[in-house]
Batch of 2 targets.
Target 1
Amino acid sequence: MYTDDAVPDYSSATGSFEQLAMPLFASLYNFAFWLAQDQAAAEDLVQETYMKALKGFSSFEQGSNFRAWIYRILRNTFMTSQAGLKASTFISLDAGDEGAPAPEVTPRTAETPESLLLAHLERQKIQQVLEQLPVAHREVILLCDMEEMSYHEIGLALGIPIGTVMSRVSRARRAMRKLLAASNEGAAQ
Amino acid sequence: MSCDLWREWLDVYVDESCTAEEIAAIEDHLRTCPPCTAATLARLQLKRLTRAAAAGRYGPSPEFRLRPEFFALLKKGVSEDGNLDRKPLWKLRWVQAVASAVVALLIVLVSISAWMRHSARDQALAELLDLHVATTASANPVDVLSSDRHTVKPWFQGKLPFAFNLPEPGNSSFKLLGGRLIYFGHAPGAQLLYDERKHQFSVFVLQENPGSTPPATGVTTSRQKGFSVEAWSEAGLRYVIMSDSSSSDVHDLGDLMRTASHQ
């Protein structure tokens, strides 16, 4: 299996394909699964991404951002796949506000056994919410919060301007809060 | 700015994508606005929980492997269309090494060539300087002793395979003393001797020959062991003037010679 050990600096990457691409295997697979929501589809997506990336590696500009480059390949591969096309028909990218502002998630200040249990429950809830998000919102949240990419890097990976990244992150978080609030209300009843 | 507008910025703030000025403005507001501070903390917590919930959530099955075609291609190191993988040709190390070696060799060759040209020029000037010094030291410095250019010039007829003009004396302070036949670089040439305020000037008129005459383009002036030297080429002939006088005097005589050669 391939691990994330010795991950190079991807913001200005130089090196062989193996050195740059293989440490990203686990992250790419995880991202692929989050997009496709299916193990077989995620595996196909990763296979195709690595093959395309290797064939196109001569076009990768050494010194530029390799992580954004290969994530973009994976994301474009997904968007042109059957699952991606199906998912994209249900979303309206950067549409207007999704209704009234969602309530904020109440912050906790100290970690206690109870709070850890709540955190575990909340984690499951967040996973469910992420799965419910439209792909355009899910991918931007995953790149921003899970992969900790900068807005600039997300723009490179998704092929969109930084201003669009900013507004899409904001809308995606609002949608998450709304879904979490709905989930909390359902649990309380 | 109202809290609604500040809220628009809170996501950018927790994602650390603000400029320093924007951070300062947001933090100024947060210090005075508990609801926005709570909203910021909620966003930070949601961000942290999202990372914890999503990162490493899914892994491939233990049997999952990238296809053998991928590794075959990786091992081959070339893409399917036959192009070199990874780097353009000029980025390959061996190409860079060969290019560096070629550049270094060219630099060495050019340097040697320049040094040899410079060395040949210095040697030719040194020989002419010896002739000038020997002439001025001689009790019989010239073969034809005359201040009349119409006597000196015809004297060279039949002795030289070329002809040249001598300047009109006019109001010039340069006085022609005479001329002599010399051999320089296995070829005959003329040496004219002029006098000006007791300084003697040798004017060498030689056939242009890159192998034996001091090569240069245009009029060049220099100092050789305290002597002023001016040289130029014209109509296949090489002119070199030498004297222990000043460079400006040498240049004045050069101007006279150049004017005469155009007549």
Target 2
Amino acid sequence: MTAAREAIHLPVLFLTVTLLGGLRPGSAVALAPPSLFALILAVLLAGVLVQSGAFAPLRVMTASRPALANLNGGVLVAALLVASAQMFSLLTPDAGLPRVLFSVYFLVLLINTMAASPDRVRVLRSLAVTFGAAFVLKFIVLDALSDPAGGRLARLLQVLFEGVTLGALTQDAQHPAAGYVAFAAVVMFLAALSLLPSAARDTRRPEGLRLPGRSLPEA
Amino acid sequence: MKSMNETVVRAAGLGIAIVYAALIAWLFVRQPATFAEVTGGLSSAVGAYRIDQQAFEDGRQYFRNDQFAEARAAFDRADPARRDALTQFYIAYAFYREGWGRFYSDDELFRAGLEAVNRAIALAPNGRLVVEEPGQEIRTADELKAELERGLKVEASDLDPMRVFRPRK
């Protein structure tokens, strides 16, 4: 991993996710900090990433590295944790039964992933599916069910769901921009996760190294 | 040379990350609702924020003429970032005067006034704001806050018939 990626690109990506994840567009823009439960989920996610080798903390913080490099690594780890917490906060509905269900869903899923101890690629795929599904449920399905200006079918479904769930399912209507901001945040977060220094061996040959008898003929 | 470049990149990255993180933390703490509040807050942090003096004078003129909605609009224009204590004081005062009634006060306007005067107190040096203006009965933010809080409370004295003779400040 290059120094620029570790010191600039990844921290900036994660911090941008933190900012976008907290953004709640509306008549007055608000910034919501992550909930305490989201912080716990973030720690679990960090555990999953380390266990699977998707993130190797020893490649960014170790005694053999210079102090400045370790500081960069510390910033990266902190940014990863805060961005993860913000991501869970963003994808969890704001109130009611869906909030409880999503929280339990994330918790069980992370514990299950830890127990299964998959490799890096599988964890990244699994996270993409998990976050993608949560995004669709919160910003498309629940939003459509909670939209007071929706069509006749939406209102009918809304009434049915409200009756069945005693009003515990519907959420406050979101600003149209909220879904787009959330989508950008999710994509950036997944991209940043895939760029993290992994535990996989770096098989690239150092520059200038030539194996005996295999060097290309001089032009 | 490569090591030197790497050190520069790492130091620059650390600086960028710290500044960016500080900016995000500031945004989360201050909760600016508009872009004007963001830019105003940042410029006031470096002492470069100035209100629109003309709009402020317009607001005071409307305020003296008891045109409170117009006064607030002008004050909002003068201080879009809500970073000036005096302007926030006058916004609160406009809410107080508009919400004041001989029989009852308008709780919604008084609550908005209380928010504005709290902002004014938070922005004033050491929380002390004195406004010397001829013909103005309330001259400090503390007095205005007390008046607004009194108006929001339900007390036995609210039933006093002599209350209708009290003056508007």
